[in-house]
Amino acid sequence: MIGQRLLHYEITEKLGEGGMGVVYKARDTHLDRFVAIKVLPPEKVADASRKARFVQEAKAASALNHPNIITIHDISSEASVDFIAMEYVAGRTLDQLIPRKGMRLDEALKIAVQIADALARAHSAGIIHRDLKPNNIMVDEHGLVKVLDFGLAKLTEENTSEDDSTATIGVKTEEGTIVGTAAYMSPEQAEGKPPDARSDIFSFGAVLYEMVTEARAFRGDSRMSTLAAVLHKEPAPLGEEVPGDLRKIIVRCLRKDPDRRSRSMPDVRLALQDLKEESESGALTPAARPRRRHRTALLVCASALVLAAVAGVWFGLDRNRIPEKEYRVVPLTSHPGEEVQPAISADGTHVAYVQRDDHEGLGGLFVQHIASGARLRLTNSPIEEFSPAWAPDSRAIAFLRSLSGEKTGIFLVSPLGGGEQRLAETLAPNRAYPELPYPLLAWSADSRWLVFSNRKAVTDGWALHVLSVETREERVLTSPPADCHGDFSPALSPDGRTLSFVRLERRRESTFYLLRLGENLTPEGEPRRLTSVALSVRASAWTPDGSAIVFNTNQRLGGAGLYRVLVSGTAEPQPVSGFDARMAQFTVSHRSRRLVFESRTIDANLWRASLPAPGGRAGTPEKIASSSQAEYSPSFSPDGRKIAFSSDRSGVFEIYTAGSDGSGVTRITNLRGSGAGSPRWSPDGRSIVFLSGQGETDLFLVDPNGDHPRRVAALPGSEVVPTWSRDGQMIYFGSNRNGRFEVWRIAAAGGEAVQVTRNGGHAAYESPDRKFLYIARARGVTSLWRMSIDGGEEVEVADGIWAWGVAVAPEGLYLLRRLQKNCPLEFRRHSDGQTSPVLDLGYPTLGLDLSPDGRTLVYSTADDRSSDLMMVENFR
Q: pTM score > 0.70 for this model?
């Protein structure tokens, strides 16, 4: 076959040969990459059962998307040659890597954990390998394991050589025949009984035994004597150089009775992972070591103890000091779209995250293997999912999914994929507070309980609740005072005994609290306030040693970035070097000392386009205001000559004005840490209303020159999306002061606010004739409703639009739709409700406005928006 071509694969060399065929290295001329080609030997093509088994191998393996399972690219035939094209792995098989007297403990555990992970994934998909052995396991130059040949399941192979003690034995699918390789098959396979996942556990035990000893667990002079050893003999006892816990794992895997074997491959993987971590930390040692009494060794030990004592005093005196060195940050993901809300596994080998807007139709919850970059999609729901949380035992990932109305569901899914399990239905705090600090879910150390924010009704406060994963029992954990918004963002210390959480005060300022916990997360005493300064927390986590909490903030404490506060309460938060304002949500693995964070990049600029006629096709857009930062929420002045907008080009969001062509940019606010956004020019041109505040926002007015800024009123709750009445006397806004967002209005001169809507609302747009209000019922994608300006029945006008993408003209509505890959602007005529396309504004669009004469559109769009995951090693 060397030099020949199968379809678009050019055969370059032979890699090996086995019972199922010959394997070649080939070049894929379509994608210009090397692949491995497994070819069925010509003399066996006529064997229908062998050919069917060959096809089944490819189908079974191709369904297993896992970093430790070989990837199948194609299965095809060419000139009567049947072949599989699969991933080419530059490495050696495991049998070639095992040295005399076995592998080093750390190396054996590193490989064994990956094999166990691959088998756990296969078993979760209902696939049994049935022929696990060292030459079916590849290890590449970086130590990444690939399990090969998922091809024996319910298939046959006949005419095996009698003198090959490790050859693949002839099998049939029905009971009474045997399947597998003699030295590694399970007793039930040797007896011809139907195997299940426990058969693979036995084979895995035989492979692991060989890895640490170099000797086969079962050996005979012939195939039949090897089978007899599998059925009736025990392996030679493992030596004392093998740690006792590892000996127990191997013995449990190799028990003859399947019912007495380890229950599942995830259990085996977890036990091996724990041993691997102990080995890496130096805590894992052989069961016994020869004692040596040597004067020099004793002196060295004594000296080490003295040095350790001195070092302990030194570091004890300096434990409040933040490490001076900057952490090295490395990229973890680079997929199209946004990877957000990471959750790292307890062992630090995998990260779960939410994929958003990749422009290829991929979204939902994913798990990615950190070492290889291979990822697995866990959910496939069109409904928003968020806040994944990895159970400490690595058996499940909890996450939230939006349901109808104010409801959110708590779900469980295996990190290996499969069906989801719905645990509970809650009132979702993220609906009331979209920018809540991360995380929203926290696991107990024993993986039996979940902590989350909930409330009994929309009028109640938010408290932390505890949910039993086993019984669904739910109980209240904290009782926040009535004068604050509630308790959020739970996180448990590495030992599981202390809960940290964020209490949102009335001004939406964050304060950390600590609560000691007993058995089954029972509170021991009252929560203790940890921080005294007002914070604006984005995410938080415990340090691996449990001595401090790290969190990031937007603009408080002197600048955005990562901060650290000791749980002893002896010092205020201090900055941690090496992190900047792009850091959003993050997660920490206490065992591996890895930190994974979401790095956001948004470059939003202002554009304008001409509108030749109401509802007509817009002209070619032109960029009018840009910077390396973001420009949001443009608003025309009443004469159409100027625009107001919000930008963080100074490092903090402030209000700016410019000419309608983008010239003469001038900052008119200087609110520093409070920030400013969502400006709207008054109809008389004398004032600009905007929002300001950390967390909780209020309405402010300022004149176009930046003079005389004032708060309209000290309003409870958070205000969003301010707009003007056509006569300039009133300001409409959304507010959550009563527990959910409704539209309110207040006189520009101040006074009492009046509630306008009763069925929810975030923004209101008054019609030019002042007869109607158009109500948007969410800050993001929403529906638009119309009601009389004096109240009354609401009528739905449109759905699937952006709340900030509405402009009301005398002839109709300009509506910004949110689609998968873009945001088209369309015009809806008042007269007949017909719609027509106006302009594709790109994605995402962050505010728009129509000039007073209706001939020019100005809008903000993110010319560059991405969110990738980054990782820090050895975080402390």
A: no
